[in-house]
Amino acid sequence: MQRMESGVAAVQRSHSVADKTGNDVGEMAECINMLRDKLQRAQAELGKLNERLSAKKGYRLGSGDPTIYEWEMDLARKKKIEGRIESIEKAVKRALRGNYGLCERCGRMIQVERLALLPFTSLCIGCARAGE
Ligand SMILES: [Zn+2]
Description:
By secondary structure, this protein is an all-alpha fold. It has one domain (2-100). Helix content is 73%, strand content 0%. It has helices spanning 2-23, 25-54, 66-97, 112-117, 125-131. Helix 2 packs antiparallel against helix 3. The two termini are 31 Å apart. The model is unreliable at 1-12 and 14-23 (pLDDT under 50). The structure holds zinc ion. Zinc ion (ZN) binds next to helix 5.
């Protein structure tokens, strides 16, 4: 019982911190702009890759042909960027709801240092490590 009460207190504490962050409209707007900028850049990169991939006819077939290898590399890059775009879009949505910076899994604040490195992460370091 004692354990449960302290757990609730921890959640309440983390929520009051989140409210303070969420109410800082200027900071949040800056954050949304930064995310949108990153989203635009990722989309431009995806556009370029799509162009190259759609020119597949130009890639020659043959075992161990370097152009086929290139194509596969581009395809892998494309998948990576698509995943990144998805995470950024999610981060923008969270920011618009005012809960950007909160861990999706445990609901606690994501460490500022972590957000500086991974601005569109949805997990705190603890949950990210647990998921690995
Ligand atoms: Zn977490």
